[in-house]
Amino acid sequence: MESDTKPNVLMERYELGRLLGQGTFGKVYYARSRVTNQSVAIKAIDKDKVMRSGHADRIKREIYVMKLARHPNIIQLFEVMATKSKIYFVIEFAKGGELFNKVAKGKLKEEVAHRYFKQLINAVDFCHSRGVYHRDIKPENILLDENGNLKVSDFGLSALVESNQQDMILRTPCGTPAYVAPEVIKRKGLSSFS
């Protein structure tokens, strides 16, 4: 994964598989641990892109938050590895994919929607009780495991209350405009969103 063509094995520990998704700073791959045989996802982040964009703090914050936020309804971070050009997050593999894809297929049954809502509220409450604010909850950032349990992911825009810049960070609008409350968009304008 150092170059555009990815090797079959990462750091002699993970057999890499198919591409699961792509984001601003890198790609997410399916992988299997050669030690435990466990299925995982590996988020490969391009260091140069992060440094050029000035978002190194965002990546550090995401690592810190994911280590802090250990909860059954939050994607677990197993380890972080790095090479000269990449940072790799080894995270829990959510076999069920994005909630967005399930919702796009049609209306959820009431009991399923209620279970998802309860799991989401539990995850958000857990984060808030530890001073972590996700700030980009949307169906694309909510994954499902093989048992249909909800898993909150992508803490890249999260804020920490303990931060020295807490007032600025918590007052800065961010997220995805399609999911932000209309009054925020009217007050701040779309151009201020991350």
Please give a structural write-up.
Belongs to the protein kinase superfamily. CAMK Ser/Thr protein kinase family. SNF1 subfamily. This is CBL-interacting serine/threonine-protein kinase 10-like. GO terms for molecular function: ATP binding; protein serine/threonine kinase activity. Pfam families: Pkinase (PF00069). The strands form 3 sheets. A 6-stranded antiparallel β-sheet has the order 1-2-3-4-6-5. Strands 7-9-10 form a 3-stranded antiparallel β-sheet. It contains 6 helices and 11 strands. Mean pLDDT is 85; it is low at 166-170 and 190-194. It folds into 2 domains: 9-92, Phosphorylase Kinase, domain 1 (2-Layer Sandwich); 97-192, Orthogonal Bundle (Transferase(Phosphotransferase), domain 1). By secondary structure, it is α+β, with helices and mostly antiparallel strands. 24% of the residues are buried. 30% of the residues lie in helices and 27% in strands.
Describe the secondary structure blueprint for this structure.
Blueprint: E1 9-10, E2 14-22, E3 26-33, E4 39-46, H1 47-53, H2 56-68, E5 77-82, E6 86-92, E7 97-98, H3 99-104, H4 110-129, E8 132-133, E9 142-144, E10 150-152, E11 159-160, H5 166-171, H6 182-188
Antiparallel strand pairs: 1-2, 2-3, 3-4, 4-6, 5-6, 7-9, 8-11, 9-10
Pfam family, one: Pkinase
GO molecular function: ATP binding; protein serine/threonine kinase activity
Protein name: CBL-interacting serine/threonine-protein kinase 10-like
Q: Helix share of residues? A: 25-40%
Radius of gyration over C-alpha positions, nearest whole angstrom: 17 Å
- Provide the structure class: alpha+beta
The CATH architecture of the largest domain can be named as: Orthogonal Bundle
Flag low-confidence runs: 166-170, 190-194
Number of strands: 11
Strand order of the largest sheet: 1-2-3-4-6-5
Number of domains: 2
The span between the termini is 27 Å
